[in-house]
Amino acid sequence: MDTDLELPMVNDTQVQIQEYSSGFKFPTGMNFLGPNDILVIEKNTGVVKEIKNGTVVGTVLDVNVANVSERGLLGIAISDKPRYVFLFYTETEKVDGGEVLGNRLYRYEYDNGKLVNPKLLLDLPTIPGPSHNGGVLKIGPDKKSVYLVIGNLNYVQNQSFITKAQNNKDGPPPDGRGGVLRITFDGGVVDDNGILGDEDPLNKYYAYGLRNSFGIGFDSLTGNLWETENGRSTDDEINLALPGFNSGWKEVIGFSKDTPDFNPENLETFGGKGTYRDPEFIWIDTIAPTSILFMHTDNLGSKYKDNLFVGSVKNGTIFNFPLNKARTHLALSGPLSDKKADTNNETGSITFGRNFGIITDLQLGPDGNLYVLANYKHDGTIFKISLKNSTN
Protein backbone atom coordinates (compact mmCIF):
# COMPACT_ATOMS: atom_id res chain seq x y z
CA MET A 1 0.00 0.00 0.00
CA ASP A 2 1.01 3.60 -0.55
CA THR A 3 2.93 4.94 2.44
CA ASP A 4 1.47 8.35 1.67
CA LEU A 5 -2.00 6.98 2.29
CA GLU A 6 -4.45 9.59 3.48
CA LEU A 7 -5.37 9.53 7.15
CA PRO A 8 -8.52 7.61 8.13
CA MET A 9 -11.59 9.78 8.31
CA VAL A 10 -15.28 9.54 9.13
CA ASN A 11 -18.08 11.60 7.64
CA ASP A 12 -19.49 12.60 11.03
CA THR A 13 -17.99 15.53 12.92
CA GLN A 14 -19.34 14.14 16.21
CA VAL A 15 -17.20 11.01 15.93
CA GLN A 16 -13.48 10.61 16.54
CA ILE A 17 -10.85 8.07 15.44
CA GLN A 18 -8.00 6.97 17.69
CA GLU A 19 -5.15 4.63 16.82
CA TYR A 20 -5.71 2.09 19.58
CA SER A 21 -2.92 -0.40 18.88
CA SER A 22 -0.38 -1.50 16.28
CA GLY A 23 2.65 -3.75 15.97
CA PHE A 24 1.36 -6.85 14.23
CA LYS A 25 1.60 -8.06 10.65
CA PHE A 26 -1.29 -8.64 8.25
CA PRO A 27 -3.96 -9.27 10.88
CA THR A 28 -7.06 -11.13 9.72
CA GLY A 29 -9.22 -11.08 12.83
CA MET A 30 -9.62 -10.02 16.44
CA ASN A 31 -11.86 -10.76 19.40
CA PHE A 32 -12.24 -9.39 22.90
CA LEU A 33 -11.29 -11.58 25.86
CA GLY A 34 -12.56 -8.79 28.11
CA PRO A 35 -12.52 -5.01 28.50
CA ASN A 36 -9.26 -3.68 27.01
CA ASP A 37 -8.10 -7.24 26.35
CA ILE A 38 -7.97 -8.35 22.70
CA LEU A 39 -6.62 -11.37 20.82
CA VAL A 40 -5.41 -10.61 17.27
CA ILE A 41 -4.46 -13.22 14.66
CA GLU A 42 -1.79 -12.79 11.97
CA LYS A 43 -2.50 -14.42 8.61
CA ASN A 44 0.98 -15.37 7.45
CA THR A 45 2.76 -16.16 10.73
CA GLY A 46 0.12 -18.21 12.53
CA VAL A 47 0.69 -16.04 15.61
CA VAL A 48 -2.06 -15.07 18.06
CA LYS A 49 -1.13 -11.93 20.00
CA GLU A 50 -2.71 -10.51 23.11
CA ILE A 51 -3.25 -6.77 23.46
CA LYS A 52 -4.00 -5.20 26.83
CA ASN A 53 -4.90 -1.52 27.08
CA GLY A 54 -3.62 -1.01 23.54
CA THR A 55 -0.23 -2.64 24.10
CA VAL A 56 0.90 -5.99 22.66
CA VAL A 57 1.81 -7.98 25.79
CA GLY A 58 2.73 -11.32 24.25
CA THR A 59 2.08 -14.26 21.97
CA VAL A 60 -0.54 -16.67 23.27
CA LEU A 61 -0.14 -19.20 20.44
CA ASP A 62 1.96 -19.81 17.32
CA VAL A 63 0.66 -22.45 14.90
CA ASN A 64 2.16 -23.64 11.62
CA VAL A 65 0.28 -22.22 8.66
CA ALA A 66 0.34 -22.13 4.88
CA ASN A 67 0.35 -18.54 3.71
CA VAL A 68 0.18 -18.56 -0.10
CA SER A 69 -2.67 -16.41 -1.44
CA GLU A 70 -5.68 -16.63 0.91
CA ARG A 71 -4.35 -19.45 3.06
CA GLY A 72 -3.22 -18.72 6.60
CA LEU A 73 -4.60 -18.05 10.08
CA LEU A 74 -7.97 -16.69 9.04
CA GLY A 75 -10.60 -16.73 11.76
CA ILE A 76 -11.08 -16.25 15.51
CA ALA A 77 -14.13 -16.35 17.77
CA ILE A 78 -14.39 -16.41 21.56
CA SER A 79 -17.31 -17.85 23.53
CA ASP A 80 -18.26 -16.71 27.02
CA LYS A 81 -19.58 -19.77 28.84
CA PRO A 82 -17.63 -21.91 28.59
CA ARG A 83 -14.70 -19.67 27.66
CA TYR A 84 -13.31 -21.14 24.44
CA VAL A 85 -11.17 -19.60 21.70
CA PHE A 86 -11.89 -20.97 18.22
CA LEU A 87 -9.32 -20.63 15.44
CA PHE A 88 -9.56 -21.51 11.75
CA TYR A 89 -6.35 -21.90 9.78
CA THR A 90 -4.63 -23.72 6.94
CA GLU A 91 -2.41 -26.01 8.98
CA THR A 92 1.00 -27.19 7.79
CA GLU A 93 3.43 -29.79 9.02
CA LYS A 94 6.32 -28.65 11.26
CA VAL A 95 6.88 -25.13 9.85
CA ASP A 96 5.04 -22.18 8.33
CA GLY A 97 4.76 -22.78 4.60
CA GLY A 98 5.36 -26.53 5.00
CA GLU A 99 3.31 -29.42 3.68
CA VAL A 100 -0.37 -28.52 3.86
CA LEU A 101 -2.42 -30.72 6.20
CA GLY A 102 -5.88 -29.15 6.00
CA ASN A 103 -8.14 -26.18 6.53
CA ARG A 104 -8.91 -26.80 10.17
CA LEU A 105 -11.09 -25.44 12.92
CA TYR A 106 -9.70 -25.89 16.43
CA ARG A 107 -11.06 -25.11 19.86
CA TYR A 108 -8.66 -23.88 22.56
CA GLU A 109 -8.83 -22.79 26.16
CA TYR A 110 -7.21 -19.60 27.41
CA ASP A 111 -4.99 -20.12 30.45
CA ASN A 112 -2.78 -17.41 31.90
CA GLY A 113 -1.62 -15.88 28.65
CA LYS A 114 -1.56 -19.08 26.56
CA LEU A 115 -4.00 -21.02 24.39
CA VAL A 116 -3.96 -24.67 25.47
CA ASN A 117 -5.81 -27.99 25.03
CA PRO A 118 -6.44 -27.85 21.26
CA LYS A 119 -9.40 -29.89 20.01
CA LEU A 120 -9.87 -30.43 16.27
CA LEU A 121 -13.49 -29.74 15.33
CA LEU A 122 -13.42 -29.59 11.51
CA ASP A 123 -10.92 -30.84 8.94
CA LEU A 124 -11.84 -29.35 5.56
CA PRO A 125 -10.40 -29.51 2.02
CA THR A 126 -7.59 -27.23 0.87
CA ILE A 127 -7.75 -28.04 -2.83
CA PRO A 128 -7.92 -26.95 -5.52
CA GLY A 129 -6.96 -23.73 -3.64
CA PRO A 130 -5.12 -21.70 -2.61
CA SER A 131 -7.69 -18.88 -2.84
CA HIS A 132 -11.27 -18.43 -1.59
CA ASN A 133 -10.57 -19.90 1.85
CA GLY A 134 -12.77 -17.45 3.73
CA GLY A 135 -12.36 -18.44 7.36
CA VAL A 136 -14.31 -15.87 9.38
CA LEU A 137 -15.83 -17.32 12.57
CA LYS A 138 -18.77 -16.15 14.69
CA ILE A 139 -20.44 -17.51 17.81
CA GLY A 140 -24.13 -18.21 17.17
CA PRO A 141 -27.00 -16.38 18.88
CA ASP A 142 -27.64 -19.49 20.99
CA LYS A 143 -24.14 -19.07 22.51
CA LYS A 144 -23.66 -22.81 21.97
CA SER A 145 -22.61 -23.01 18.30
CA VAL A 146 -19.87 -21.65 16.07
CA TYR A 147 -20.32 -20.56 12.45
CA LEU A 148 -17.60 -20.65 9.77
CA VAL A 149 -17.77 -19.12 6.31
CA ILE A 150 -15.58 -20.80 3.69
CA GLY A 151 -15.34 -20.11 -0.03
CA ASN A 152 -15.23 -22.60 -2.88
CA LEU A 153 -11.39 -22.79 -2.89
CA ASN A 154 -11.76 -22.80 -6.66
CA TYR A 155 -10.61 -19.52 -8.15
CA VAL A 156 -9.53 -21.34 -11.33
CA GLN A 157 -12.96 -22.97 -11.78
CA ASN A 158 -11.65 -26.53 -11.92
CA GLN A 159 -14.77 -28.38 -13.10
CA SER A 160 -14.11 -31.55 -11.12
CA PHE A 161 -14.26 -29.57 -7.86
CA ILE A 162 -17.65 -27.93 -8.49
CA THR A 163 -19.97 -29.76 -6.10
CA LYS A 164 -23.69 -29.69 -5.44
CA ALA A 165 -22.93 -26.99 -2.86
CA GLN A 166 -21.91 -24.81 -5.83
CA ASN A 167 -25.16 -25.60 -7.62
CA ASN A 168 -23.71 -28.30 -9.85
CA LYS A 169 -26.71 -30.64 -9.71
CA ASP A 170 -24.76 -33.42 -11.41
CA GLY A 171 -21.60 -32.81 -9.38
CA PRO A 172 -20.10 -34.62 -6.42
CA PRO A 173 -21.68 -34.20 -2.97
CA PRO A 174 -20.74 -31.22 -0.79
CA ASP A 175 -17.32 -31.58 0.84
CA GLY A 176 -17.35 -28.65 3.27
CA ARG A 177 -16.44 -25.92 0.76
CA GLY A 178 -18.56 -23.05 -0.49
CA GLY A 179 -20.88 -22.24 2.39
CA VAL A 180 -21.52 -21.29 5.97
CA LEU A 181 -20.96 -24.26 8.27
CA ARG A 182 -22.50 -24.49 11.74
CA ILE A 183 -21.39 -26.85 14.50
CA THR A 184 -21.60 -27.24 18.26
CA PHE A 185 -18.65 -26.33 20.48
CA ASP A 186 -17.72 -30.03 20.40
CA GLY A 187 -17.86 -30.27 16.60
CA GLY A 188 -21.26 -31.95 16.40
CA VAL A 189 -24.40 -31.18 14.43
CA VAL A 190 -26.52 -28.42 16.00
CA ASP A 191 -29.77 -29.86 17.44
CA ASP A 192 -28.68 -33.21 15.91
CA ASN A 193 -30.52 -32.17 12.78
CA GLY A 194 -28.97 -30.99 9.52
CA ILE A 195 -30.78 -28.15 7.73
CA LEU A 196 -30.08 -29.52 4.23
CA GLY A 197 -29.62 -33.22 4.93
CA ASP A 198 -28.36 -35.81 7.37
CA GLU A 199 -25.17 -37.03 5.70
CA ASP A 200 -21.80 -35.57 6.74
CA PRO A 201 -20.71 -32.85 5.97
CA LEU A 202 -23.99 -31.66 4.40
CA ASN A 203 -25.54 -31.81 7.87
CA LYS A 204 -23.19 -29.02 8.97
CA TYR A 205 -24.16 -26.57 6.21
CA TYR A 206 -26.22 -23.58 7.29
CA ALA A 207 -25.93 -21.92 3.85
CA TYR A 208 -24.32 -22.78 0.51
CA GLY A 209 -23.68 -21.53 -3.01
CA LEU A 210 -20.98 -19.13 -1.82
CA ARG A 211 -18.07 -18.15 -4.03
CA ASN A 212 -15.80 -16.19 -1.71
CA SER A 213 -16.63 -14.47 1.56
CA PHE A 214 -14.77 -12.56 4.25
CA GLY A 215 -17.67 -11.60 6.47
CA ILE A 216 -20.59 -12.99 8.45
CA GLY A 217 -22.44 -11.29 11.29
CA PHE A 218 -25.59 -11.71 13.38
CA ASP A 219 -28.35 -9.19 13.92
CA SER A 220 -28.98 -9.57 17.64
CA LEU A 221 -32.51 -8.16 17.29
CA THR A 222 -33.60 -11.02 15.02
CA GLY A 223 -30.85 -13.63 15.24
CA ASN A 224 -30.55 -13.46 11.46
CA LEU A 225 -27.19 -14.04 9.79
CA TRP A 226 -25.94 -11.59 7.16
CA GLU A 227 -23.01 -12.24 4.84
CA THR A 228 -20.75 -10.35 2.44
CA GLU A 229 -19.55 -11.94 -0.76
CA ASN A 230 -16.89 -11.05 -3.31
CA GLY A 231 -17.84 -11.29 -6.99
CA ARG A 232 -15.45 -12.18 -9.77
CA SER A 233 -14.84 -8.69 -11.13
CA THR A 234 -18.22 -7.15 -10.38
CA ASP A 235 -21.31 -7.71 -8.24
CA ASP A 236 -19.92 -7.76 -4.71
CA GLU A 237 -22.85 -8.62 -2.46
CA ILE A 238 -24.54 -8.26 0.92
CA ASN A 239 -26.87 -11.19 1.65
CA LEU A 240 -29.43 -12.07 4.27
CA ALA A 241 -28.57 -15.71 4.92
CA LEU A 242 -31.56 -17.46 6.44
CA PRO A 243 -31.24 -21.18 7.32
CA GLY A 244 -30.76 -23.14 4.09
CA PHE A 245 -29.79 -19.99 2.14
CA ASN A 246 -28.45 -20.62 -1.36
CA SER A 247 -26.33 -17.70 -2.59
CA GLY A 248 -26.54 -19.08 -6.13
CA TRP A 249 -22.92 -19.55 -7.18
CA LYS A 250 -22.01 -20.56 -9.74
CA GLU A 251 -25.31 -20.22 -11.57
CA VAL A 252 -25.75 -16.60 -10.52
CA ILE A 253 -23.80 -13.73 -8.99
CA GLY A 254 -25.53 -10.42 -8.38
CA PHE A 255 -29.25 -10.26 -9.16
CA SER A 256 -30.82 -13.23 -10.90
CA LYS A 257 -32.85 -10.94 -13.20
CA ASP A 258 -29.58 -9.48 -14.51
CA THR A 259 -27.96 -12.86 -15.09
CA PRO A 260 -28.10 -14.00 -18.74
CA ASP A 261 -29.92 -17.33 -19.27
CA PHE A 262 -30.61 -17.72 -15.54
CA ASN A 263 -32.88 -20.66 -14.88
CA PRO A 264 -33.91 -21.43 -11.28
CA GLU A 265 -34.30 -25.07 -12.31
CA ASN A 266 -30.51 -25.26 -12.48
CA LEU A 267 -30.16 -24.47 -8.77
CA GLU A 268 -29.54 -27.29 -6.31
CA THR A 269 -32.19 -27.31 -3.55
CA PHE A 270 -31.28 -30.50 -1.66
CA GLY A 271 -34.83 -31.81 -1.95
CA GLY A 272 -36.44 -28.43 -1.44
CA LYS A 273 -34.56 -27.68 1.78
CA GLY A 274 -32.35 -24.97 0.26
CA THR A 275 -33.70 -21.64 -0.96
CA TYR A 276 -32.11 -19.13 -3.32
CA ARG A 277 -32.48 -15.48 -2.37
CA ASP A 278 -31.27 -12.46 -4.32
CA PRO A 279 -28.70 -10.19 -2.63
CA GLU A 280 -29.91 -7.32 -0.46
CA PHE A 281 -27.30 -5.05 -2.03
CA ILE A 282 -24.63 -5.19 -4.72
CA TRP A 283 -21.75 -3.01 -5.84
CA ILE A 284 -21.14 -3.11 -9.59
CA ASP A 285 -17.62 -1.71 -9.15
CA THR A 286 -15.49 -4.01 -7.01
CA ILE A 287 -14.98 -2.83 -3.43
CA ALA A 288 -14.13 -6.26 -1.91
CA PRO A 289 -16.40 -6.24 1.15
CA THR A 290 -15.01 -7.90 4.25
CA SER A 291 -16.27 -7.77 7.82
CA ILE A 292 -19.91 -7.24 8.70
CA LEU A 293 -21.19 -5.92 12.05
CA PHE A 294 -24.41 -4.74 13.63
CA MET A 295 -23.94 -1.65 15.78
CA HIS A 296 -26.20 -2.62 18.67
CA THR A 297 -25.31 0.35 20.87
CA ASP A 298 -25.88 4.08 20.55
CA ASN A 299 -22.29 4.92 21.52
CA LEU A 300 -21.68 6.54 18.13
CA GLY A 301 -25.04 8.29 18.27
CA SER A 302 -28.63 7.10 18.08
CA LYS A 303 -28.72 7.34 14.28
CA TYR A 304 -26.30 4.40 14.01
CA LYS A 305 -27.98 2.15 16.58
CA ASP A 306 -28.80 -1.28 15.11
CA ASN A 307 -27.36 -0.31 11.72
CA LEU A 308 -25.29 -2.67 9.61
CA PHE A 309 -21.62 -1.73 9.12
CA VAL A 310 -19.50 -3.31 6.36
CA GLY A 311 -15.73 -3.00 5.96
CA SER A 312 -13.94 -3.26 2.63
CA VAL A 313 -10.57 -3.38 0.91
CA LYS A 314 -11.00 -0.66 -1.72
CA ASN A 315 -10.14 2.74 -0.23
CA GLY A 316 -10.46 1.20 3.24
CA THR A 317 -14.12 2.17 3.29
CA ILE A 318 -16.64 1.48 6.05
CA PHE A 319 -20.25 1.46 4.85
CA ASN A 320 -23.28 2.11 7.04
CA PHE A 321 -26.74 0.72 6.24
CA PRO A 322 -29.98 1.25 8.14
CA LEU A 323 -32.50 -1.62 7.97
CA ASN A 324 -36.23 -1.64 7.38
CA LYS A 325 -38.65 -2.20 10.26
CA ALA A 326 -38.85 -5.96 9.66
CA ARG A 327 -35.02 -6.06 9.45
CA THR A 328 -35.13 -8.25 6.35
CA HIS A 329 -33.97 -5.58 3.89
CA LEU A 330 -31.70 -2.55 3.90
CA ALA A 331 -33.47 0.82 4.00
CA LEU A 332 -32.16 2.40 0.81
CA SER A 333 -33.26 5.54 -1.03
CA GLY A 334 -32.35 7.74 -3.96
CA PRO A 335 -29.99 6.19 -6.52
CA LEU A 336 -29.57 3.15 -4.22
CA SER A 337 -33.28 2.32 -4.01
CA ASP A 338 -32.66 -0.34 -6.66
CA LYS A 339 -30.35 -2.10 -4.14
CA LYS A 340 -27.42 -1.43 -6.44
CA ALA A 341 -24.44 0.92 -6.53
CA ASP A 342 -23.95 1.32 -10.29
CA THR A 343 -20.74 3.27 -9.57
CA ASN A 344 -18.89 4.05 -6.36
CA ASN A 345 -19.95 7.68 -6.85
CA GLU A 346 -23.42 6.56 -5.73
CA THR A 347 -22.27 5.38 -2.31
CA GLY A 348 -21.82 8.72 -0.54
CA SER A 349 -25.00 8.35 1.51
CA ILE A 350 -23.90 4.97 2.90
CA THR A 351 -20.22 5.80 3.45
CA PHE A 352 -19.35 6.08 7.15
CA GLY A 353 -15.58 6.41 6.78
CA ARG A 354 -12.64 5.68 4.53
CA ASN A 355 -8.82 5.47 4.19
CA PHE A 356 -8.49 2.75 6.84
CA GLY A 357 -6.33 0.49 4.65
CA ILE A 358 -7.29 -3.14 4.07
CA ILE A 359 -10.05 -3.64 6.64
CA THR A 360 -10.22 -7.25 7.84
CA ASP A 361 -12.44 -7.02 10.93
CA LEU A 362 -14.98 -4.82 12.66
CA GLN A 363 -15.82 -5.50 16.30
CA LEU A 364 -18.07 -3.94 18.89
CA GLY A 365 -16.00 -3.53 22.03
CA PRO A 366 -17.23 -4.25 25.57
CA ASP A 367 -17.24 -0.45 25.93
CA GLY A 368 -19.83 -0.21 23.13
CA ASN A 369 -17.47 1.49 20.68
CA LEU A 370 -16.45 0.42 17.19
CA TYR A 371 -13.03 -1.16 16.67
CA VAL A 372 -11.55 -1.47 13.18
CA LEU A 373 -8.76 -3.95 12.38
CA ALA A 374 -6.81 -3.11 9.24
CA ASN A 375 -3.59 -3.61 7.38
CA TYR A 376 -2.74 0.08 7.31
CA LYS A 377 0.47 1.37 5.69
CA HIS A 378 1.87 -2.17 5.79
CA ASP A 379 1.27 -2.33 9.53
CA GLY A 380 -1.48 -4.06 11.43
CA THR A 381 -3.48 -1.41 13.26
CA ILE A 382 -6.57 -1.28 15.44
CA PHE A 383 -8.54 1.95 15.29
CA LYS A 384 -11.08 2.87 17.95
CA ILE A 385 -14.06 4.94 16.82
CA SER A 386 -16.12 6.71 19.47
CA LEU A 387 -18.15 9.82 20.10
CA LYS A 388 -16.13 12.94 20.83
CA ASN A 389 -16.14 13.82 24.53
CA SER A 390 -17.08 10.22 25.34
CA THR A 391 -15.97 8.83 28.69
CA ASN A 392 -15.48 5.38 27.14
How does the SSE layout of this entry go?
Blueprint lengths: L8 E2 L4 E10 L2 E8 L2 E6 L4 E6 L2 E8 L10 E6 L6 E8 L7 E12 L2 E11 L12 E3 L5 E6 L28 E6 L20 E4 L6 E4 L6 E5 L6 E6 L3 E2 L28 E2 L4 E3 L5 E7 L11 E6 L5 E4 L18 E2 L9 E4 L3 E7 L5 E7 L2 E9 L5
Parallel strand pairs: 14-18, 18-19, 20-24
Antiparallel strand pairs: 1-25, 2-28, 3-4, 4-5, 5-6, 7-8, 8-9, 9-10, 11-12, 12-13, 13-14, 15-16, 16-17, 17-20, 21-22, 22-23, 23-25, 26-27, 27-28
Care to give the gist of this entry?
The protein has 392 residues and is an all-beta fold.
Structure description:
The protein has 392 residues and is an all-beta fold. Helices cover 0% and strands 42% of the residues. The strands form six sheets. It has a six-stranded mixed sheet with strand order 11-12-13-14-18-19, with no helix packed on it. A five-stranded antiparallel sheet has the order 1-25-23-22-21, with no helix packed on it. Strands 15-16-17-20-24 form a five-stranded mixed sheet, with no helix packed on it. 48% of the residues are buried.
